[in-house]
Structure prediction request, 711 residues.
Amino acid sequence: MAGYIVRRLLSAALVVVLTSMFVFALFFLGPANAARPLCDLNGRCNPEKLALLTEQLGLNDSVVNQYGIWAKGLVSDREIVFGPTFHCDAPCLGISYSTRGEVTTELFDRFPATISVAIGGGALYLVIGVVLGVVAAARRGTVVDRGLVAASLVIYSIPFYVVALVAWIFFSLEWGIFPDTTYHPISEGVGPWFWGLLLPWLVLGFTNSTTYARYTRGQMVETLGEDYIRTATAKGVRRSKVLFKHALRAAIVPVITLFGLDFAYLLTGTIFLEQIFQIDGIGRWAIEALRDPIDFPVVSATVLVGAIVIVVANLLVDIFYSFIDPRVRLA
Amino acid sequence: MSSPHVNEGFLSAGQQVFQPSAGEDPFLVVDELTVRFPTHDGLVQAVTDLSYSVERGKTLGIVGESGSGKSVSSMAVLGLHDPRSTRLSGSIRVGGREIVGADEDDLRRLRGKDVAMIFQDPLSALHPFYSIGDQIAEAYLLHNKVSKREAKARAVEMLDRVGIPQARNRVDDFPHQFSGGMRQRAMIAMALVNDPKLLIADEPTTALDVTVQAQILDLLQDLQREFNSAIIIITHDLGVIAEMADDVLVMYAGRAVETGPTKLLLTNPEMPYTWGLLSSVPDVTASTDARLIPIPGNPPSLLNPPSGCPFNPRCAHKDKVPGDLCTTTLPDLLPAQVGEDHRRRCHLPDPEVIYGTEVLPEIAPNLVEQHEQTREEETR
Ligand SMILES: Nc1ncnc2c1ncn2[C@@H]1O[C@H](COP(=O)(O)OP(=O)(O)O)[C@@H](O)[C@H]1O
Ligand code: SF4
Ligand SMILES: [Mg+2]
Prediction:
């Protein structure tokens, strides 16, 4: 078990390193000169200024060197020069072109908001979806089941941002059911944090839970046909426990796999939500950074963080497997 | 295929003659049980007008080809059919209580307590994600007010009882860590954990190799002696029947076609389908100079069963029945020519003669003489 987790951790770490190389290559070795947007920022850019910035940013060095310097910044402080000299504490992800602040500091400021939206919304639709799926499977062929499947197909066909916008306009602006949809860090109290995030969570829950309900239903229908379910019933286990213990224990495995695979999709949804509900999270930051002139250090940091979150989510899914399925644990 | 304990001679005459024990009502009484499944293709007539009973301490063997309704009928005893997709009629009384139409709570109290069941494939019948010990302990916890620790201790005790070596160390193993035979022992331990009064074993040894099969059957017999349980053993293997069963019920197309005390029925079968089953047993032929003859044709469709005798499309003897009775009229389950409590569903006027002169010489010529003798002794 411990060996399995260590192996998975190592491979996850490798994926993160490779991703960081990829991100680095994408933004610093791309077709555009990474010094160009910085040059455009203050005053007119002329060839001399561009050449100076290119030199100061080390963009004339070899690729390997550049990556080495960047990677070293993750563990030790760095001095970054473009115009003035900036001190950048480890782990250093660079200095923002637009704010001239340390990217890492701002990243840590914004991360809790994003992760609150994503985890809360994800947990909500997972739980609602799974419960609805179990109920539909248990009442297969009835009105409840058919209604659920039909509703899920309808909801699935509505674009996510439409739901988010409509929810914001009506529930927040028009009817004032959720008057305060601004994000409050949890340090200001659990109450404000919770109520501020509830509407975005509900939007995520509403749009995604039906997909999970349908998927769970399919898995449950299959599992309920297994011999060991009949064994449980023949032992005298009550129906609810047959469903939620014996059957769900097996049926949930592929559902959690889907959840892990869907995590990137969840983050995309979070970017929309941050925009619409004006939550100062990573997603909103990334979108601002992508505006012209592009803020390369911020964009690269947000992509890297997104990648790490997805890798960690999949790692957690794998560890979850090993807890739930003894055959994985021993493999 | 069949038990090595009975590789010869179960067709020969036995000394024991079935004696119905006086007084006590049978623990299980099934009366005119009919089970139908409405499907897209039509109504599946899985079990029709089936009646039988089993007393405590006795074993009933139910035999028939696959699809003959053995599992469906025995699952009904535990109320395991989903009422929304099943039409069930008749009566099933367990210890005097009616099962047909009983509510879910009553059924739950009965399941695993008074009536327990073991299934054909122990690997698929055990939950892959729970340890063997947890699964046995759960069965105990459901029907006894004990702590989890006591239930676990009981699981160890049961595993030990069914012959799992080092039960204490194996109790936390998962099903995939057990061998096939050990899994079936674990299933038996789980079924017996509450000392059930009736044990239904649905092809308990079909998935196992011959040696293990014999051990499992021995185990069931030991446990039956110990707990005085009634046992229903379902099989398509007459060897298992010969070794285990006091009485036999032969099923075909969802109906009883021949019933009676085991020795009598196996030595003096009076229904051509039973003859077919006997002819296709490899053990009989292995010990004699006879041939292995499979029953020609396929089991009938249960959506649209043949009119008359359900066996008529495959029956080699229907020309001996006057007129077209076989194809037009369903024979009743009537007292047989030979033996008490022996019944058969067939229009043949003299099946015992046909068996002795036409069938037996083909499948076991060395037994013809014996058959002749018992026939005379037993004929009323
Ligand atoms: N739930 C069901 N719905 C429809 N048909 C069924 C169902 N369960 C069993 N059957 C059919 O009933 C017949 C008898 O099955 P079964 O009792 O399992 O046979 P066996 O004698 O091999 O145990 C088979 O033809 C089977 O296909
Ligand atoms: S009733 Fe007719 S068809 Fe059926 S088993 Fe007897 S002889 Fe054969
Ligand atoms: Mg069966």
About this structure: The CA atoms of residues 226 and 247 of chain A lie 9 Å apart. Residues B 271-272, 309, 311-312, 315, 317-318, 321, 326, 331, 346-348 surround iron/sulfur cluster (ligand 2) (CB under 6 Å).
